[in-house]
Amino acid sequence: MSTRPEVLFVCVHNAGRSQMAAALLRHHSLGRVVVRSAGSEPAEKVNPAAAQALAEWGLDITAEVPVKLATEDVEASDVVITMGCGDTCPVFPGKRYLDWQLDDPAGRPVDAVRPIRDEIDRRVRTLLAELLD
User: Do the beta carbons of residue 44 and residue 67 sit within 8 Å?
Assistant: First the structure.
């Protein structure tokens, strides 16, 4: 790995799961990890329920803009995490690939998004401990 580990979160629309995961890893890593997120078919904006669920914890993702997955993002990352949406990523030797099977928050009320946020947070904390060990 590079001096600071680099992690890429990928989901189809880059509007919910990957945005929450990126925000949580940025928050918990305190700058010790380079974090990216992207989607194969990015939405126009971040999922409002995902943004609201994170706002409850003091994290603001409302200014984030979903972005298209680029080969360069995968190339630059040490760990690539797909968010249970069947996305395909370019595969490069020496990369660590994980698939986190998570419910999609799209179209769900914030009450249904909170458990998804909580599970992402648990996984992010575990990943961070592994990366910085």
Answer: no
**Residue 121 neighbours by CB under 8 Å, 6+ apart:** 24
* Environment class of 40 (CB within 10 Å of its CB; exposed 0-12, middle 13-18, buried 19+): middle
Asked if the model's pLDDT at residue 1 lies above 60, the reply is no
- What pTM was estimated for this model as a whole? 0.93
Pairing outcome for strands 79-82 and 34-38: unpaired
Distances (CA, A) of 127 to 48, 74, 122: 26, 18, 9
Residue with tokens 């648990």: 122
Burial of 52 (0-12, 13-18, 19+ CB in 10 A): middle
Alpha-carbon torsion 108, 114, 115, 121, what sign? Answer: positive
pLDDT tens by residue, 53-84: 999 999 999 999 999 999 899 999 999 999 86
The predicted pLDDT at position 100 comes to: 93
* Helices (H) then strands (E): counts for the chain: 4, 4
